[in-house]
Design brief:
It is a single chain. The protein is built from 18 helices and 17 strands. The C terminus is likely disordered. Strand 5 and strand 6 form a beta hairpin. 36% of the residues are buried. The protein is rod-shaped. The chain has 553 residues and is α+β, with helices and mostly antiparallel strands.
Length: 553
């Protein structure tokens, strides 16, 4: 639901550039173990993010989003500030999804975002979730944002009265957030006219425990911005503060020469929130700053945030798993780089984002795939380095090349095997039928799909009709032969005998005498002693032939 544009009064166009004057404070509250809220405010940008997911990474989600967007704090946009703001929020959503992909323990984390970008005399508004934006202009105090909650939907549909919403059991159920649940979250976007002197209050839903009329009276009557945020947070703590509370107050003003000459400031952290920030550092980030000497002086007393966290807070705190970011984070981006970026301009950074900035474990670059982009964001080299992003993409995993090489090797082996198999078939022969005649084929009678594995070698003069029925069936079913010579012998046997049995050489039948018989006339007498006298020798009788060729005749 887009917020309608609010026209400015005629004649209110400022003669000098507009900037924000601001104050911010975040507190963990009286019940929660850590602060899941983050906020940033400078001269052109204000963001409040309320993380969800508890120990699963609500602080990581809010800090990642805020730190990814803080580079927008300038006024040179050439007419596309609203588009840039929306795109950066969508990019932050993608980074949260990458964080969850790298560390599945963060699954389910998300964050609200309510942001204002002051550029070229316009105020660009973006919102998702249930953090709120209020505006005080010309005496009218009005909520500009619309809560993306279940009870607000019931109110819009007329099924619930506004006074019943505070006690509804599902009042904290969000319908839209940034996180790993939606690749393209729907944002409320608007470009608003702006006037010098108007005030804005951005806050997380922790401030809802203070009555609305009390909040309005405080904003109206407290002129000093710092005093206003302190009062609102203190009121929340007096009301029990069951949730984290973050408040940003800003006032639109014309830039003065003093503003131009103002030197950049250090990160501002209210003393009351220092302990909460230290606690959040241990839970929102896993890696402490690898350079302890670079820590600010006010952090020296609690440099071991893990030890401090273990000794304070409720008992449930000890069981909360520590959210992990990139263990090699210091190799890509140190806390000094972030501090250098933050020191370029006046600002306030509070909540989990401030804890991450101090510890140097920046959630936005928890994965190697986004390390370069985070460095780009934090050094204002967006356009130049985005073109170089591809150079920092991780190389393909070795396992992919192993898979490709294995598949190629298997393909080669299969191809060689098929070729060798085909070559072997061409050394074989068989007898078959062709045009009603007996023929010799080279190869085997089978087919490989559409490929015939044999070729016609010779067609004989033997007609199939001249063969016995049994032999015709054998030939039609094909008769295998070891080689061409063997195939020719089978064909010859079919021609001579009508059978496919292997042919044998036919030996000529002859009478083999067992003893010499005397000739009828002039026969030589038997040698002496070879036969008894007076006995005639018996003539030899021929043996019966056993040659199959003769039997066939």
């Amino acid at each position: 639901m887009a917020v309608p544009e609010t026209p400015a009064d005629k004649g209110s166009t400022p003669t000098r550039p507009l900037i924000m004057r601001y104050a911010a404070r975040s507190d963990v509250g009286r019940i929660r173990a850590k602060n899941d809220d983050s906020a940033y405010v400078g001269r052109h940008l204000a963001i409040v993010a309320d993380g969800m997911g508890g120990h699963a990474g609500g602080d990581v989600a809010s800090a990642a989003t805020v730190l990814d967007m803080l580079h927008l704090d300038h006024g040179n946009y050439d007419g596309d500030a609203g588009t840039v703001l929306a795109d950066e929020i969508q990019t932050a959503n993608s980074l949260l999804s990458e964080l969850v992909h790298i560390n599945p323990k963060l699954a389910g984390m998300g964050t609200t975002v309510t942001a204002l970008l002051l550029a070229e005399g316009k105020l660009h508004f973006a919102h998702i979730g249930d953090s709120r934006a209020y505006r005080l202009r010309n005496g009218e105090f009005k909520q500009i944002s619309v809560d993306h909650t279940f009870v607000q939907r019931l109110i819009d549909e007329g099924r619930l009265r506004p006074e019943e919403a505070e006690t509804h059991p599902h009042k904290n159920v969000l319908m839209r957030v940034l996180g790993d649940v939606d690749a393209s979250p729907e944002l409320d976007l608007a470009t608003l006219d702006v006037e010098p002197g108007e005030r804005w209050l951005l806050c997380s839903d922790g401030l809802n425990y203070v009555a609305g009329h009390v909040v309005e009276r405080t904003v109206r009557e407290t002129k000093d911005l710092r005093e206003c945020v302190e009062t609102l947070v203190d009121l929340t703590l007096e009301a029990g503060a069951p949730d984290n509370v973050t408040v940003v107050m800003l006032e639109i003003a014309e830039q003065t020469p003093d503003d131009i000459r103002t030197a950049a400031v250090e990160i501002v952290q209210p003393p009351a929130a220092a302990e909460d920030v230290t606690k959040a550092a241990a839970l929102a980030t896993a890696q402490p700053n690898p350079e302890p000497k670079a820590k600010p002086a006010d952090d020296a007393s609690g440099s071991d945030t893990r030890g401090e966290d273990a000794g304070t807070g409720p008992a449930s705190k000890a069981t909360e798993p520590t959210t992990s970011t990139d263990p090699h984070l210091g190799e890509h981006l140190s806390a000094a780089v972030l501090r250098e970026e933050l020191s370029m301009r006046p600002h306030e950074l509070v909540g989990a984002a401030a804890a991450a900035a101090e510890s140097g474990s920046i959630p936005t670059i928890a994965g190697r795939t986004v390390a370069r982009r985070a460095a780009t964001v934090l050094t204002h080299k967006s356009e130049q380095d985005r073109e170089e992003t591809d150079e920092y993409k991780p190389a393909a995993k070795p396992r992919r090349w192993v898979t490709i090489a294995t598949a190629a090797a298997l393909l080669v082996i299969l191809s060689v095997g098929l070729w060798l198999g085909y070559a072997w078939t061409q050394t074989r022969y068989y007898i078959g039928e062709y045009d009603s005649r007996v023929a010799i084929y080279n190869g085997v009678s089978q087919r490989l799909g559409p490929i015939q594995l044999s070729t016609l070698e010779t067609v004989t003069d033997i007609r199939m009709s001249d063969l016995p029925e049994f032999s015709q069936q054998r030939v039609r079913q094909t008769v295998p032969a070891r080689d061409l010579y063997d195939a020719q012998r089978i064909v010859k046997n079919l021609d001579l005998t009508g059978t496919t049995s292997p042919a044998e050489e036919c030996a000529s039948a002859s009478a083999t005498p067992t003893a010499a018989s005397p000739s009828a006339s002039g026969a030589a007498p038997a040698p002496s002693g070879t036969a008894p006298p007076g006995k005639a020798t018996q003539s030899a009788t021929p043996r019966p032939s056993t040659n199959p060729c003769e039997e066939a005749k």
